[in-house]
UniProtKB/TrEMBL annotation:
Residues 1-22 form the signal peptide. InterPro entries: QVR-like. It comes from Plectus sambesii. It comes from the Eukaryota. It holds the Pfam family QVR. Keywords: Glycoprotein, Signal. This is Protein quiver. The keyword ATP-binding does not apply. The lineage of its organism: Eukaryota, Metazoa, Ecdysozoa, Nematoda, Chromadorea. One of its GO terms (biological process) is regulation of synaptic transmission, cholinergic.
Length: 166
């Protein structure tokens, strides 16, 4: 009977821990890439108008689209509101890539409802949301974070239950 109580208590603690995490602010990378110098004047003008009307653009950073770059960790971190998510928007056009990273709650202008695009680097545009600290680095990092954050609690739970039962 005691074992069942301990397992129930463990689940209650894990549930409380999960609520604390979801009710706290997270940090996200906040940056945008600049338009390539080779972009013609009309395309730059159209893109700037589109961005100005739809997004609150974070600071431009030269390695925003290159998460593997040695300088990537120097990109500014934004503290997002409680319960918010990190976002990464990617647009690929031929050999050019435009990326915006930031907080979901502040990324879009107040009158804009983000469209539902897939979270897939192979599609364009791609919009990805995540809720771990600095998780908007890249899709590969998101997959690694998901695996790490899922495996650790499961291993802890498995080991705790085994200890309680023996």
């Amino acid at each position: 009977m005691l074992h069942l109580f301990q397992v129930t208590l463990l689940f209650a603690c894990l549930d409380c821990f999960d609520r604390v995490l979801s009710d706290s602010a997270i940090e996200c990378y906040g940056c945008a890439t600049s338009l390539p110098a080779t972009t013609d004047f009309e395309a730059k003008t159209a893109m700037k108008l589109l961005i100005k009307n739809n997004y609150n653009l974070p600071e431009v950073h030269k390695v925003c689209s290159e998460p593997g770059d040695q300088e990537f960790p120097t990109i500014p971190h934004l503290e997002c509101p409680i319960g918010d998510q990190c976002v990464k928007i990617t647009v690929n056009q031929q050999d050019q890539r435009f990326v915006i990273r930031g907080c979901r709650a502040t990324m879009f202008k107040p009158n804009i409802t983000p469209q539902d695009y897939p979270c897939d680097d192979r599609s364009s545009p791609s919009i990805c949301y995540c809720d771990q600290a600095l998780c908007n680095r890249s899709l590969l990092m998101l997959a690694a974070d998901l695996a790490a954050n899922t495996a650790a609690p499961l291993l802890y739970y498995q080991n705790t239950v085994q200890l309680m039962l023996y």
